[in-house]
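Our consortium's second objective concerns turning raw sequence data into structural hypotheses that experimental partners can test. To show how far this objective has progressed, the report includes one record in full. It was chosen at random from the queue rather than selected for favorable results. The single chain below, 313 residues long, was entered without modification.
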Amino acid sequence: MRRKLFIVGPTATGKSELAADLAHEIGAEIVSVDAFQIYRGLDLLTAKPDASTLAKARHHLIGIAPLHEEMNAKKYRHAASRAIQEIHSRGKLAIVVGGSGLYIKALTHGLAPVPEFDPKLRQKLNAMSLDELRAQLAKLDPEATRKIDVKNRRRVVRALEICLLTGKPASEVVAGVDDAGRSAKVSPGSAPAATGVFVVRDREELYARINRRVEAMFENGVIEEVRAAGEVSMTASQMIGFRELRQLLDGKMSISQCVAAIQQATRRYAKRQLTWFRWQTNFSPLNLSLLTHNEARILLRMLPGVSGVRAKG
């Protein structure tokens, strides 16, 4: 059995619970595709599945990397491919669950090679102001300045690195930039067939779920969790809410301001995820606002590649 099922979509839709129940029923295993849940620690901030959800089925790639380690699509694809092979070797279905779009695309399409960063060049670029970096990128790759967030210093630096190391515009070398500021490009040709669903909820309901989840994070101790965090890599520091909580700990904002800021940032992230999945995947939408949990689970059981999997017991 060489099958896998993708259950993807924006944050706070309920993907993890749905996938865990399905996996428990049919004896499948779950491979997380989340750029931040892969880190060990900061469980509340990254909204890792709770203990009862994790107990329903074996989960992979949750809490395996130290916070000081840099992550990217290449590293993720290697680890996920290995986990999926192990699951298949046990004759089980792999259920890939998450919302990190470029990591998902790394699995469905593969990656084109891009240069690793050069320490000397990185040091030189880091000494430049953001305005200087943007001006140089505009000369070397005008298209990149339109495609990336030019207010994000990491992304501007990485785009310039690719230009300077390859002698080509970064926009021609890569198709996007992953959560670590490194670039990922789908391999030429069509992607292999993949069975999956794009989980959504009505916007008002999704935003209410996000707001409640952020409030619960604070009730359960996310402030102390971030206070106790040690060295954090550039990748891990991009977790939604991490910057705001550090500002709270530094006395630069109140708790109410911090809660509101994280709620807003998470809603905006969910909106970006919705747009990405609609344009970048062919997975059928599954609106959980219109279905009960059991109805959604039954529909998943009917998908090609899943319907033939025997239920446990």
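The partners drew two points from this record. The first strand starts at residue 4 and ends at 8. Strands lie at 4-8, 29-33, 59-60, 94-98, 176-177, 183-184, 195-200, 284-287. Both points have been shared with the crystallography group to help prioritize constructs.
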